[in-house]
Specification:
13 strands, alpha+beta, six-stranded mixed β-sheet, about 290 residues, elongated
């Protein structure tokens, strides 16, 4: 089931570091909101509010690559071979590991900005919700600021959380994907071999005054890196913003208002004592009787 990989083929340090990032606490909701906490795998009602919580079944008859890709998709993870070992990483706001300037570029620079239709101002995500009898539940998230920037034209994004059953975890990730869609500028360059140690999801600063890539708007992450036969490197970088990874900025979820029971409790009932019945079963008077209106 492990795809024939041995322990020596895996960079365990990268898995531990990524798990630590995903264990960050999501403060946008209270644990008491999850009334179905047992179905989330929590051992108690005060379970973890980890940024990522997966609760799923992996079918062994499915191809390993398909299963791995489906899990990675839930948290924008990347699993790539680096120096003979598989390294796991995610997008984060870690310090820059390199500073790339115009002097490092060989040839032209190619800038690709996502089409306006792919810059969302609302998002609709689906998940399997135990609170809905394990049926599908829809999460809709809307940002009025983005809508105003888009001249009131609604642009809806969609996402599916196949392995998440915590409604509030799915909601936070839906908001992350919505915000991320607004930072869609990619830069492709050819550069020197000195940047060969860069890996996908590593953060760099890319400074190029001509295109307005100056601090603080020069934060990029590595999307792709290709080592060429001539010793040069092709890099694809994507712009990001630190606010994407600040869990304190997640929208707070209001405490649900208590609602009355669906079935109204009985009212105006009377109790009629049955002394003889109490004697027959050996109970004190008042323990057996009839309840009626």
């Amino acid at each position: 089931f492990g795809g024939g990989l041995s322990y020596q083929d895996i960079n365990m340090a990268s898995f531990i570091a990524t798990a630590s990032l995903l264990d960050q606490q999501d403060t946008s909701y209270e644990t008491s909101f999850n009334t179905m906490w047992r179905y989330l795998g929590w051992s108690s009602a005060s379970g973890t509010r980890a940024r990522m919580q997966c609760n799923t079944l992996l079918a062994s008859e499915e191809p390993v690559t398909k299963l791995v890709e489906s899990v990675l998709e839930q948290f924008n993870g990347s699993l790539v071979p680096v120096q003979g070992k598989y390294v796991l990483s995610i997008e984060d706001d870690s310090p820059s590991v390199a500073n790339i300037t115009a002097d490092d570029i060989i040839g032209s620079i190619r800038i690709n900005d996502r089409a306006n239709k792919d810059k969302w101002n609302s998002i609709q995500a689906s998940m399997q919700d135990p609170a809905a009898g394990w049926g599908s539940n829809q999460i809709t998230f809307f940002n009025s600021t983005f809508l105003a920037q888009d001249n009131g034209i609604r642009k809806l994004g969609r996402a599916t959380f196949q392995h998440i059953t915590n409604y509030y975890t799915a909601r936070s990730w839906a908001q992350f994907l919505l915000n991320k869609s607004r930072f869609s500028k990619k830069v492709s360059i050819t550069t020197y071999y000195k940047f060969f140690e860069l890996q996908p999801n590593k953060n760099v600063t890319f400074t190029f005054d001509k295109y307005g890539f100056t601090a603080p708007n020069n934060k990029f992450r590595v999307v792709e890196i290709e080592l060429k036969p001539d010793g040069l490197i092709d890099l694809t970088l994507e712009r990001y913003d630190s606010s994407l990874f600040n869990l304190e900025n997640q929208s707070k979820v209001a405490i649900p208002e208590p609602t009355g029971p669906v079935v109204q409790p009985p009212q105006n009932l009377t109790f009629t004592n049955m002394p003889n019945a109490n004697v027959l079963v050996g109970l004190p008077e008042g323990f057996r009787g009839e309840i009626g209106r």
